[in-house]
């Protein structure tokens, strides 16, 4: 394939959104749909992979100007400086397993190193193929908690409303307690949310 990587431009937004939706559709993030592309408060690396003027992949990394202003505290003593948060990385399903995601990551790393970024942080759910990809790129899993979706009768007995006549029906929650097996058994949709760190070589 004769595809190329370039910086994201505002005119790319419709194709960017379509690529992201299709990339997430068969994953645990299937309902995480954006109608507008995010904008970042800090300097960012926003890249797209294109083929025949169509976006087939994307990556967004927000880069800290002050350590700890965007990313979580480091788990490694060798990377206590500025870090970059990977907010979005996606490849169109028709172009998976062809090196597009890896190529986007490599370009983003090279650009981040020019700004003295020492670490990339990424959060992702429990799709086995995605976890294998991060690990193949050298990321290490350093944290995990649960994303819990409470639906219909699952909400009853767990959450309520202080407003008369208002009843929660669908609730998204985060769980960081000790009773993980109990939570996973009690609710029908529970995902692990995993933090992966990549230490960037100087």
Automatic annotation (TrEMBL):
Entry's Gene Ontology molecular function annotations: acyltransferase activity, transferring groups other than amino-acyl groups
Enzyme class (EC, first level): transferase
Superkingdom of this protein's organism: Bacteria
Gene3D superfamilies linked: 3.40.630.30
InterPro entries in the cross-refs: Acyl_CoA_acyltransferase, GNAT_dom
UniProt keyword Cytoplasm present: no
Annotated EC: 2.3.1.1
PROSITE patterns in the cross-refs: GNAT
Key words, A-Z: Acyltransferase, Transferase
Sequence ranges assigned to domain N-acetyltransferase in this UniProt record: 3-164
Pfam families: Acetyltransf_1
Name this protein carries in UniProt: Amino-acid acetyltransferase
Source organism of the structure: Halomicronema hongdechloris C2206
Phylogenetic placement of the source organism: Bacteria, Bacillati, Cyanobacteriota, Cyanophyceae, Nodosilineales
């Amino acid at each position: 394939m004769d595809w190329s990587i370039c910086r994201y431009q505002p005119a790319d937004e419709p194709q960017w959104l379509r690529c992201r939706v299709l990339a997430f559709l068969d994953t645990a993030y299937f309902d995480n749909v954006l109608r507008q592309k995010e904008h970042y408060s800090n300097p960012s690396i926003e890249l797209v992979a294109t083929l025949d003027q169509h976006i087939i992949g994307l990556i967004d990394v927000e880069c800290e100007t002050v350590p700890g202003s965007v990313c979580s505290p480091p788990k490694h003593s060798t990377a206590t400086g500025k870090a970059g948060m990977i907010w979005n990385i996606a490849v169109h399903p028709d172009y998976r397993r062809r090196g597009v995601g890896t190529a986007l990551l490599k370009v983003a790393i090279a650009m981040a190193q020019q700004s003295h970024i020492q670490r990339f942080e990424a959060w992702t759910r429990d799709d086995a193929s995605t976890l294998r990809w991060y690990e193949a790129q050298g990321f290490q899993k350093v944290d995990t908690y649960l994303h819990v979706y409470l639906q219909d009768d699952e909400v009853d007995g767990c959450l309520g409303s202080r407003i008369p006549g208002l009843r929660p029906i669908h609730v998204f929650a985060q769980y960081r307690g000790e009773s993980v097996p109990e939570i996973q058994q009690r609710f029908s949709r529970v995902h692990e949310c995993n933090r992966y760190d990549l230490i960037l070589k100087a």
